[in-house]
Amino acid sequence: MSVWKSVMSVSFHSHGIRRQWESVAANTICVSAGFKGAYLFDQGRADAETILAFLRTAKQAGLITHLDILDIDHDSLFITRRQTLMTQCVCDQRDCFRRISFIDVSPHREHPCFVSDGERRMIIQQLGVLTDNLLSALSSGSYILPKTIAVKSHPDLPLCVLFGYLLGYPIIYWTDNVDPCASNCLGMVSLRRHTAVMSSRELREQIVSSFSLPENLCVGVECHVAKWKEQFAVDCLDAKCGDFSFTFSEQSFVFPQVAL
Q1: pTM beyond cutoff 0.90
Q2: Which pLDDT value is given to residue 237?
Q3: Contact 205, 195 (CB under 8 A)
């Protein structure tokens, strides 16, 4: 039996989570190796203590480095590597979040469009509050045992922006409605999904990052997508992880409704 599969069996009682052990393993490896700053644990129902026990077991087995749990607003749990996420926050604050394009998908819009200059300034101000809170929380505490780090986001920051930022997306949807259940204008719009897939000797191909954007706006953000791809290659080289490789794919799709 795979060591990862064994660790998952010991750590989680949920059969749903166990069945997705390769996806959990691949994404946790990506965070541990510094390929991305955080991983939203949404494979099934698991509280922070259960995920912490999983991280401790995986670390003791020599599978990962020190990782923690990021608890955003006591609602969403992310597995994170503090150093990577702190570096992301510091670099983005210094560069005024220039690596990110924000797309307005508010329900009153007829079509998605890039946010206005005023909206971008407002989003950056809100992300500035979030990153300040992250840096303050992540820089405190020991690195001896995995822990849960509670962080408050900006109250007016839409969930899609919060998640997109923590997951390192270069393209992030924004809406003027902070209700996560609110509608948007992406229905019946031709979208292009960009996906990063990781594979190794032990794991089959697993999606480790994926985001979409309207096809009619692709030309304006090609450089952002290219840099996102390049960063995976650079990080993989820096981490000297010869066992891992990344491939990228693009797929177009149209849905009657799109959830953020």
Answers
A1: yes
A2: 60
A3: no
